[in-house]
Amino acid sequence: MGRSPCCEKAHTNKGAWTKEEDDRLIAYIRAHGEGCWRSLPKAAGLLRCGKSCRLRWINYLRPDLKRGNFSEEEDELIIKFHSLLGNKWSLIAGRLPGRTDNEIKNYWNTHIRRKLLSRGIDPTTHRPISEPAQETTTISFVAANTTKEEEEEHKITAGISNTEENIPDLNLELRISPPCQQPQTEPLKTGGRIGSVCFACSENQCSCVINGSSSSNGGYDFLRLKAGVSDYRSLEMK
DNA sequence: AAAACGTCCAACCGCGCAACC
DNA sequence: CGGTTGCGCGGTTGGACGTTT
């Protein structure tokens, strides 16, 4: 079983990229733009697999990358986002301009994990380590007849925390919709009070978001991220 | 001085998903 | 509608570099 390899391994370079390879890749993408990674290596005259080119470009060569140390502010943002999103590095990276998923993942594993542990916080659950393992409850808003797709959507909609591995569930309402012209009258999905927890304040009865003007378009000011979340793609795409 | 150990991070690997045929 | 292809993601690895013994 399995699939065919993504490229002809026998004739591709592996390991660290040389300056010349970098230059070729940059020149090619400048001239032709990103896309069709599979055919790019050949077209650019690189003996690399397309995936390798993509990775190199996204994680290292892209001109909009912010290299250098993470600020304290970025640290805290990453921690917040991780507590909500779990190991969704690409989503987290989407909220940190100039940072890549790989960079954040590495930084998390090398610095932030340790930082949280030193604060007595479990980096996986974001709960105090001394706290006894709690029975976590997954609140499901998925109707019995929901499709798999809908179920997936709900996974990022509600819940408290997850599961066997104590990975925090995604309790986000991510919507793809044009700006709503009318006040929302319908209860949020499936009648559950999904909209009752404020992610910005972590309070149930917070009024800053849910009841405020920001909810008029049917979305949350998730961690004060309103601007970015109005378009789901902008949250997901780097 | 050098061996052992620890840290960091670029790159690779395998898988899931969606688009395409 | 099922198989194939390509992309993107998260997890893992390996080697360079720094620190300690």
TrEMBL record:
Keywords: DNA-binding, Nucleus, Repeat. InterPro entries: Homeodomain-like_sf (IPR009057), Myb_TF_plants (IPR015495), SANT/Myb (IPR001005). Residues 13-63, 66-114 form the Myb-like domain. Pfam families: Myb_DNA-binding. One of its GO terms (cellular component) is nucleus. GO terms for molecular function: DNA binding. It is found in: Nucleus. The keyword Repeat applies. SUPFAM superfamilies: Homeodomain-like (SSF46689). Gene3D superfamilies: Homeodomain-like (1.10.10.60). This is Myb-like domain-containing protein. It comes from Fraxinus pennsylvanica.
